[in-house]
Amino acid sequence: MMPRDAEVVVVGAGPAGLTTAAALAERGVERVLVVDRDDEAGGLPRFCSHLGFGWEYTHRLETGPGLVRRLLRRLDSNAVTLLTRTSVLSVKPGPKVELVSGRHGHMHVEPRAVVLATGIRERPRSARLVPGKRPAQGILTTGQLQQMVARGVPVGGRRAVVVGTEHVAFSILLTARHAGLDVVAMVGAEDRIMSYAVAGLVARTMGVPIHLSSTVDDIQGADRVESVALRGPSGQRSIACDTVIFSGDFIPDAALMPGSGIAVAAATSGPSVDQYGCTSAPGIFAAGNVLRAVESSGLAAIEGARVGTNVAAYLEGLLAWPDVGTCIRLTEGLAYIVPQRWVPTNDSGYATRSLPISLRALADVPRARLRLIENGKEVWAGREMKVLRHRRLALPAAILDRLRGGDAALHLDPV
Ligand SMILES: Cc1cc2nc3c(=O)[nH]c(=O)nc-3n(C[C@H](O)[C@H](O)[C@H](O)COP(=O)(O)OP(=O)(O)OC[C@H]3O[C@@H](n4cnc5c(N)ncnc54)[C@H](O)[C@@H]3O)c2cc1C
Questions:
Q1: What integer pLDDT is reported at residue 249 of this predicted model?
Q2: Residue-level pLDDT at 350
Q3: What pLDDT is recorded for position 348?
């Protein structure tokens, strides 16, 4: 298929883009074009050789590349064309897609639907306002280190400090070891690690000290990093190291949103979507981590599969492009919710699928409960629970189907 004949263009061949394409093909859509600017499909997982990818979707213990291979095998090559080394330069209302491809050059495509599955970006050190020198070598983000290791590029250092304590920061310990780096410290600004307790245990078993309630105060080094200074509860301390790996400052890769007609959700910096993955721009859907930074590859894959089903319904005229619907207001203590909007349930009889809900709190709360209030009346109250800000809060999607279009607010009440 030539790109200009595509009925659907999926931007991004990570887990979300690949499952979107598979679901479209399963529903009989025959001209699906998946494009990725990278030289191979797979998105971020293809650079991560440790286990723990795709669990929620495949229920298997797989590495990143293992998950990618599985998702690629599921693609029906008669219906889906995968075009790598192809960058989408813009998406405009219509929808219209402008792309540049090593194989086809500069092109304009006018598909019936577009799915944004562009994932996340990591903010580099320069955007994190970390004081100190700017040595030419030795300062990396987790994504950069993953790519260097996967592509066989020598990292050059011996002793690394990892800044961040969320899931990704712990997964980088294995990658660092693989790269010949000895991680001599992890640093977290919070008073606990932002991941599961078992992750902290693994780090300590590997002999990695974790400095909590601490920040990087200074980086020293001319050509290469020589040390970092940490400020923590017991004052300042200097740690000799030649590599600093920054983790955890992720944002949706929303570069295609300006000019596309897609409304941005302030809380996530990603597109605002309804439960079917519809953005505010007719014909443009979104799935995966572009919706918010950052969830697991398994969740991104589930989102892609569901959005693919919904796009197929839209192409068949069984999912009318919805209005804005009910915007769910979050009250104090809640960071974000995805989807942000809820529209009346599609009753065409077609099996449209709601996105799983990503709901996060701003801070830990020892005991709290969620309550959904519509027009001043409580329509649902959850059970008491412990709230940890690094974990998704459980809110069944069916609860939101009860909304009737009034003012809806989600409360997190400490108890
Ligand atoms: C260091 C690290 C470790 C991780 N470890 C784990 C883990 O252990 N387990 C786990 O489940 N998850 C892990 N994750 C998270 C996991 O990688 C993501 O959940 C998953 O990759 C999200 O999939 P996605 O399809 O939304 O986006 P991505 O995988 O990021 O894919 C997006 C794709 O879009 C492409 N793209 C973007 N813009 C354009 C454009 N304009 N034109 C063309 N192509 C474009 C990109 O090249 C990319 O291939 C980790 C993430 C990182 C950064």
A1: 82
A2: 66
A3: 65
Mean pLDDT taken over the chain: 93
Ligand 1 center to 119 CA (angstroms): 5
Q: What is the token pair recorded at 394?
A: 């459980």
Beta-strand (E) ranges in 311-357? Answer: 326-330, 334-338, 341-342
Judge whether residue 197 has pLDDT over 80: yes
Query: Which residue puts its alpha carbon closest to atom 44 of ligand 1?
Result: 36
Q: Compute, in angstroms, the gap from residue 303 CA to the centroid of ligand 1.
A: 13
How does residue 127 score in pLDDT terms, banded at 50, 70 and 90? low
* The domain made up of 124-248 is a member of CATH 3.40.1350.10: no
Task: Kindly state the tokens that stand for 165.
Answer: 């304590």
Domain ranges in the chain?
3-121+251-414, 124-248
- 374 CA distance to ligand 1 middle (Å): 36
The whole-number pLDDT of residue 134 equals 83
Distance linking the first and last C-alpha atoms of the chain: 58
Q: What is the CATH architecture of 3-121+251-414?
A: 3-Layer(bba) Sandwich (3.50)
Q: To test ligand 1's pocket by mutation, which of 118, 142, 146 has the most ligand atoms within 8 angstroms of CB?
A: 118
**For residue 255, what pLDDT is reported?**
94
Query: How far from the centroid of its chain's Cα atoms is residue 19's Cα?
Result: 15
Gyration radius of the chain's alpha carbons: 22
Fold matches, 3-121+251-414 and 124-248 = yes
Residue found by looking up tokens 């009737």 in the block:
404
